[in-house]
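Quiz preparation item.
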């Protein structure tokens, strides 16, 4: 009897996957007879990888998957970067082996990036390693075996986001990376696609037998190779019950009949399709900045239209809450990195950029029940500035101004919600930023989890926001990741929240938990 082998990793995208182990790292196809590479071959290998990634990005853009395309574009830029190519060419000229030189230069650059204090830049070390490996593989004529015909779990030293996008419709049911973390681009893409993924996994997984059956369970943070029959049956049941409600959820009500509006968070057309097919009533948070985190200037009106149209076009008369660019935290594009002001302040300091985005939102959102959401609000002046720009833009476009709401995700704004309520049409609580500020944890910190929004200080602030909204008669929703957390969700329902917006792939699961919850039986804070 085969004994199951277990490998632990950090869950970075939730779910359970059942499939055969597929090693995506390439194998030598030359039977060990390697010819020394010439400078031209080295340059050609870099160029081939850059072309391949650029072509994949263009293909993704054509399919309306702009955020994914932006990520693959980064790999294309790295593969065309002379800072990487020149030292490799020089080393080969001096007699070094091509693959060794690529590996050494790639590692040196990755180490420099990994040491940077900015966690977002530090995560790019993985992108450099992926590109270096792809170039070395191209040079050495190394290729991964094709994936199995059945469902499979991808295992790589460093999972490349491009792998996930390419294999998503070819039987991929999960991914396991020895490198990376929760904010690596591969993890971001895995979450958007609803694929379970482990990062920082025990490196012995690279020696596990390919083709063997395995269970990837992010509840336990384990990959189990050759699982026991009982484990296989349990995993199969869990997968079936997670998938079942996808086609059936429509009106979401609690077990005691209270209606809840369940919306989805998206940044791409693919997530919008996933969320709506899972039963979301509409989009509760469109993160417009994700598509533009690598750009060199403010996006133009046309850039915004190209991004918004494939998403909002799906929302025929459904709610669509479009958030203005939130170039803050780990989403600051290169052109703002060294500016004094970022985020909402930078956007308000660039009135042309704000107008361009508002115009595109109004035009692309014509067929939907549109609202505009302002991120990271700190003052009433900011609300007034956006309200004025929205009113003027609406006149220009010949439309009624849509509702204007604010993200409540800064602790001082939450504490002072009663002052903001009369100035806005709705509140949307961003538990990700709120929790990290209240608990004094960086959002890139490994310790930060959506469940931490259960902490009484965070709950106390949410309570104040709900009360302020009720007194003024405006709606309040929660769109941070805590809305989909099984521990926090009942607390939010108990506080009176009846509108939730969750990751597109999480809609069926959250709908099921709401349907199983008796709100009347939940503990309620004293009035
Ligand atoms: C939040 O902070 O909870 C939120 C929804 O905004 P983002 O995660 O995009 O910062
Ligand atoms: Mg936020």
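Solution:
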């Amino acid at each position: 009897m085969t004994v199951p082998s277990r490998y632990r990793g950090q869950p970075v995208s939730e779910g359970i996957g059942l499939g055969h182990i597929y090693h995506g790292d390439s194998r030598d196809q030359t039977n060990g007879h390697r010819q020394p590479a010439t400078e031209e071959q080295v340059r050609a290998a870099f160029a081939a990888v850059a072309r391949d990634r650029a072509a994949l990005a263009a293909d993704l853009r054509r399919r309306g998957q702009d955020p994914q395309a932006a990520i693959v574009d980064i790999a294309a830029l790295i593969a065309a970067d002379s800072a990487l190519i020149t030292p490799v060419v020089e080393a080969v000229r001096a007699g070094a082996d091509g693959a060794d030189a690529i590996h050494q230069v790639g590692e040196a650059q990755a180490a420099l990036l990994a040491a940077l204090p900015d966690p977002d830049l530090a995560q790019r070390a993985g992108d450099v390693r992926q590109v270096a490996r792809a170039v070395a593989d191209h040079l050495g004529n190394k290729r991964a075996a094709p994936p199995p015909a059945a469902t499979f779990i991808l295992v790589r030293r460093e999972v490349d986001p491009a792998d996930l996008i390419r294999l998503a419709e070819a039987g991929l049911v999960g991914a396991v990376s020895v490198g990376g973390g929760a904010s690596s681009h591969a993890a971001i893409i895995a979450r958007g696609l609803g694929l379970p993924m482990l990062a920082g996994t025990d490196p012995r997984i690279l020696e596990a037998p390919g083709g063997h059956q395995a269970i990837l369970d992010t509840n336990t943070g384990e990959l189990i190779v050759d699982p026991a029959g009982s484990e296989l049956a349990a995993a199969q049941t869990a997968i079936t019950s997670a998938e079942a409600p996808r086609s059936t959820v429509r009106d979401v009500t609690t077990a005691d009949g209270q209606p809840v509006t369940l919306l989805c968070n998206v940044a791409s057309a693919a997530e919008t399709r996933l969320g709506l097919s899972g039963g979301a009533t509409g989009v509760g948070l469109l993160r417009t900045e994700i598509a533009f985190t690598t750009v060199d200037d403010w996006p133009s009106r046309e850039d915004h239209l190209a991004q918004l149209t494939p998403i909002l076009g799906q929302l025929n008369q459904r709610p669509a809450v479009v958030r203005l660019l939130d170039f803050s935290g780990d989403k600051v594009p290169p052109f703002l990195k060294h500016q004094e002001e970022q985020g909402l302040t930078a956007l308000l300091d660039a009135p042309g950029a704000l107008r361009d985005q508002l115009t595109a939102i109004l035009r692309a959102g014509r067929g939907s029940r549109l609202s505009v959401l302002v991120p990271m609000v700190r003052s009433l002046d900011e609300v007034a500035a956006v309200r004025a720009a929205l009113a003027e833009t609406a006149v220009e476009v010949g439309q009624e101004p849509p509702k204007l709401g604010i993200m409540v995700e800064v602790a001082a704004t939450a504490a002072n919600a009663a002052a903001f309520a009369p100035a806005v049409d709705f509140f949307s609580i961003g538990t990700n930023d709120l929790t990290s500020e209240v608990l004094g944890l960086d959002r890139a910190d490994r310790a930060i989890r959506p469940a931490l929004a259960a902490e009484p200080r965070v709950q106390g602030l949410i309570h104040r926001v709900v009360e302020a909204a009720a007194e003024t008669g405006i709606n309040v929703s929660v769109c941070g990741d805590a809305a989909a957390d099984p521990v926090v969700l009942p607390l939010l329902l108990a506080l009176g929240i009846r509108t939730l917006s969750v990751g597109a792939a999480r809609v069926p699961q959250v709908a099921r938990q709401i349907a199983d919850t008796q709100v009347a039986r939940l503990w309620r804070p004293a009035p």
